[in-house]
Each structure stands twice: as structure tokens, then as C-alpha cells.
Amino acid sequence: MKQAAPVIATAAALLALILVLHAPVFTQGALITPAGMHYAQWPWKAHAAEAIEGGALLQENHTLSDLLFQVYPWQRFITRSLQSGEVPLWNPYSYTGVPFVANAQSAVFYPLHWPAFILPTMRVFTMAIMLKILLAGLFMTVFLRGIGCSTIPCVVGAVSFALCGFMTSWLGYAHTNAAIFLPLLMHGARRIAIAPGSGPFLIMAFAMAAQYLGGHPETSLHIAGAASLCFLWHLPASRRPRLAIALFVAASVAGLLMAAVQLLPFAQYLGQSAALEQRQALAGVDPSLPFGSLLTLLLPAHFGRPWDYSYHGPAAWQAVAAYTGAGILLLAVLSLAWWREVRLYLCLAFGSMTIVYGPDWVRAAIRRIPIAGISSNNRLILIICFCLALLAAIALQKILARSAEAVPRSKGPLLLVLGA
Questions:
Q1: What is the DSSP string of 143-156?
Q2: What Cα–Cα distance (Å) separates residue 166 from each residue in 51, 80, 174, 320, 379?
Q3: Which residue among 206, 338, 381, 405 is buried most deeply as judged by most CB within 10 Å?
Q4: Lowest-confidence range among 31-40, 95-104, 152-161, 311-320?
């Protein structure tokens, strides 16, 4: 029971937050989608006044337009296709018809979307969005517990990661389909390196396959890269390094094979896609974010808010969202006191920050790397948020351990508030 306490506490905290943040889903049967936005477009614009009189909330966040005009219609197409007993390989409603499963971001085979095969309804996708928050936190707890964190640090780190700027701003998109598996991949990679066995192999193989099926290859590239670096870092301490390497490679291959139903059509489609040629031709259009964008780690509205049209950031709102909060940042800084134990995660955070916010020559060097060079590498903000949540949890664990004898138990909640 003691081993399960961090998982139970994290689940309780996140379920409570989900109930509060998404109350209309449970009280009104609402779907999580910016549905009111279409009243700003014709022909629905003519009925906007009538909808407002009927009590509709038409506050618009134009940066989420893809959710309404792409993701939501795709989900409707998936449910209708499954209702008719067909797997939606082809989308006849875009242009003169385009591949559907092969576009990856449709995420037809994503594990959280599997219930749609049995009960094809739009509510499956709303439940998947809320489950992403819960699973991101639970997977983070598994990783933190694996490195020795107790309940309070696990809860603080898990909530920070699950509700960070990246996870929140991309919650309805395919990015977070893959991103939630980052902690689980890191846990599997670390465990395979240190103590290779069937358990870590299965964890990593499952996480690798699931994140590929999530439908966002760029995010998959980033988190698979982070997990590989984690494995290589811990490999020198391995009890059986040759077995560890064999299991790591085997888990990676197994993940690719299990996700082949998604990856093979995508690879074929990508090779014939104008999007690939465009990315190759315009590889320089993904510049680093201004250094001042780091303030979004502390101030989520530093560049304004898109829903009141005050946003004036250097890129799309989602592309700069990196909020973690003052408490997490403070604890992450304090983690420097334990440099030897946290240096891997500090290096990952610093390296990602250098790519996202660094000088132009860094981004120019990245563009020379195959595949990575044509990716949107500003989305390494995910790695930054993950590392900051992790560093904060480690620092809080050290503080609690040092003060266990000096600080009365009644002051424990005060430390929890500091971590939050």
C-alpha cells in the first residue's frame, strides 16, 4: 500500500482538478471543443445573435481554430466511419480526396481512441482529452517513484507536468497524444539501462508504440531522443550492459512494429507529400523564439491572451506556452544544490532551452541534422517543462528528507504549498 500511495495521491489530486477545470462536461454533458468559434464564420455568423440570446458562450480563441475546423471534423468522420463498419483509410471531403489514416494526426489507432471502435461517439474524444491529463500525471509519478521520490514530491511534479503550458495549450491536439508517454519512456529507458529485465522492456515497448500511434511524429522524435539520451547516460552503471543494449534496441523495434499500422502508411504518404518538400524548402522558417519568451515559464499571459485579442507574441500562442509557475521554478533552481544527481535533467533542460531560445547559429546547426532539421523544434518546450517539473520534485524530496527531523509533521502542508 505504501508503494501505491504516490499513485493514489496523484490520481486523487488530478481527478479533483479535472472535475473543477472541466465541470461542464460532467454537469451539462458538454464536449471539449471551441464550438462557439464557428459563429464568427459564415454561414453561422448570421445566427450568432440568436445563439447568444439562447445562452451560448461565444468567446473565441482564434488560435484553437484547428480544433474546430480540422480535429473536430476528423473525429466526426472517424465515428461515422466506424458506425458504418469501415476503417477510415480515405477522406473524400478534403479537396478531391486525401489519405486519412496515413496523415498520422488523425490518430485513428491511438489507444485512448480505441473505445470509439466499440462505442463510436464524440464523447470518446472528450474523455480521451481528460484521460491525457490523468495519465500524464500518473506516468510522471511512476518515473518519480522510480528515482526515489515520496508522495508529496510525486504529486507536485506530476501535477506540474500534467498542467504545464505545453500540455495545456496542445491538450486537444495530437502533440499531447505522444507527449503524455514521455515520463513512461524515460522510466523504461532508465530501468533497462540500470537493471535490464522483462518489466522495463515491456514498459518501453508499450510506451514507444503508443506514442507513435498518437499521431505527431515531431513530438515522437523529441521524446524518443530524450529517452535515448537517458538510456545512454545510465548505461555505464548497468549491471549487464550488453543485455541492456539488446533490450533497449528490441523494445524500440517492438514499438515500431506494433505501431506499423500507422507508421507504414504515414511513411508512404510522406514520401509523396508536398508538405515534405515544403518543409525542406522552408527549413529556415522555424527560427528560435526571442530570449524574452522565457518569461512565459513564469507569466502565462506575458504576451497577452488570444481570447481577448490582446495576444502579440512572436509565434502562435501554443508555440510559446511554457508555463510552470513560480514555485516550480524556485524548486528547480534549488535543485542545483544536488548537481551530481540532477545533472542529466539540467543538461536536457539547458540543451532544449538553447535550441528553443538560443542564438540563430544553434538553430542553423540543427537544420543540418536529417529529419530533426525539418522539424518544429520550438516544441522542445515539452522537454523543458518535463525537466523543470522533475527537478522541482527532486529538490522538494531532498528538502523534505533533510528537514524530516527538524520540521514537525504539521508543517508538511506548508512545504506542499511551496512546491505547488
A1: HHHHTT--HHHHHH
A2: 32, 31, 12, 8, 8
A3: 381
A4: 31-40
The more confident residue out of 72 and 396 is: 396
Contact by Cβ (8 Å): 130, 358: no
Q: What single DSSP character describes residue 70?
A: I
Residues 6 or more apart in contact with residue 294 via CB below 8 angstroms: 322, 353, 357
Neighbouring CB atoms inside 10 A of 302's CB total: 17
Q: What is the DSSP letter of 62?
A: G
Are 366 and 218 a contacting pair, CB within 8 Å? no
Q: Is the pLDDT confidence value at 281 over 80?
A: no
Residues 208 and 226: beta-carbon distance below 8 Å: no
DSSP assignment, residue 240?
S
Instruction: Note the helical H segments in 147-305.
Output: 151-162, 165-169, 174-179, 182-194, 198-213, 217-234, 241-258, 260-271, 274-281
What's the one-letter identity of residue 125? F
Contact indicator for 180, 225 with CB cutoff of 8 Å: no
C-alpha cell at 148: 526515489
How much is the pTM? 0.91
Task: Report helix, strand and coil shares of the chain as percent, to nearest 5.
Answer: 70, 0, 25
Longest dimension (CA), the chain: 71
CB 215 within 8 A of CB 173: no
Beta strand 98-99 with 90-91 is antiparallel
pLDDT at 413 > cutoff 90: no
Cell, residue 179: 507527449
